[in-house]
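[agent] plan:
  1. take the single chain provided in the ticket
  2. run structure prediction with default settings
  3. attach structure tokens to the ticket
  4. add a short note for the reviewer (M.T.)
[agent] executing step 1
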Amino acid sequence: MISTFFNHELKAFWRSKNTGKTIAVKVVMGILILILLLYVVALGVLLDVILGKAFPKDDLVVTFCGIILIYFLSDMLMRMQLQELPTLKVQPYLHLPVKRNSVVGYLALTAILSFFNLWPIVLFGPFIIKIILPSSGALVAGAFFVALVSLSVFNNYLAMYIKRKSNLNGWVFLVAFAVLGLAIAGDFVWHVYSLRKLSYGYFGALLTKPYLALLPLVLGLGMFYFNFIYLKGNLYLEELGSRKASAYKSSTEIPFLNRYGSVGDLVANEVKLILRNKRSRSALLMSSFMLFYGLIFYTQKVYPDGFKIFLGMFMTGIFIISYGQFMFSWQASHFDGLLVSKIKFSDFLKAKYLLFTVVSTIAFLLTLPYAYFGWKVVLIHFVMYLWNLGVNTTIVLFFANRNYKRIDLSKGASFNWEGVGATQMLLSFPLLILPYLIYWPFSLLGMPYPGYAALAIIGLAFIGTRSFWIKKLEADFYDKRFKIAEGFRNI
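[agent] step 2 finished; step 3 output follows
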């Protein structure tokens, strides 16, 4: 039966009207993956040399055993962001005499076909053969291979489970990502424990007790079975609907939004969209990573004060830029429904403004610890926070009216350029240049603080006249709505 499913998938691929485009993308991706694989092979062959130079005072095998756990934590982070979920259109099989175990088994087994499962063998295999096999024997070397493959399988199915759960509740993904981040920060930032010692505690024991390789084997098989049971229990669409609706409370039922009426409801739906889809969720994650940019640049004195304007704008407003430029593209699959709905477009715009205000405010508050580098940094961040809420939000929404490319939310975020076009390139010019056109004249005269004041005043002026800009954007949208809808229909 699995071969039948595979045959149906191949036929669906070749009969699709986007086959040519898909093949071109897969060829490019295949070349990139092959190049990456060659780099990993070279790294694996030279791993003993690299570890010897990086840790000259430590025993080579001890060093090797100490990095394996760190690798698998990093592997989990990459899987959560980059690895795709295996898919199968289940509906055509539901009325046929096809066993549920066959459908679920196909989905579960195809998840193994991931390049992530190949990396640990390619990366660590040469070291095991060159160093561990001659010194400890074939039994120990085999135990290492079993442990590595089993942990890779465990990571594979754990990432699959987290992603599937996050499709129902986006907070699951954020919590899992935060837990992994804290686990890594506990060693490398706070030094509460040593991941290298924990890693050696297990993999070092394999050198004398090879039977311990059964532990990750049991974990890998257990996670595979757990994933199988979860898929089997959620195979039918109705089981993902009414039965779970009564037991699950939406993560976007935020009391703060109730006071805004229909605008608050639109924001709540937007939050659901962001948390439940990979591409939109990646925009939120990128905004979180941008908050650490200051640690890279503020620790170096070679960058002038003018560069801090750029940093302040991006750290407090990257979500506005990365998410807002695709304002309609996120709703491309149901845009025609929005056009005929009773939703006022002015409310739609107000919801966008409210969402950007909340996210940008949280981002600004999270950058307050940069006061460690001087209160001037906080001042610049606050100025650019006002600039983002007033000017950049309006510019981004203006250009969003000119983006006619759809985004398929069912696709992954990695190497996905759907919705990206010339509009995004044109958008970068006013966003990057405009604040400096206002600041530089004051800076050249040796008056940076009046320059900051000018940026803040303009930002506040745009915030104060927001209702005026909403009317302008609404009128602009009605002029272009049918052109936008036509662009979204071109799949």
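[agent] step 4 note for reviewer: DSSP finds 23 helices and no strands in the chain.
[agent] ticket updated
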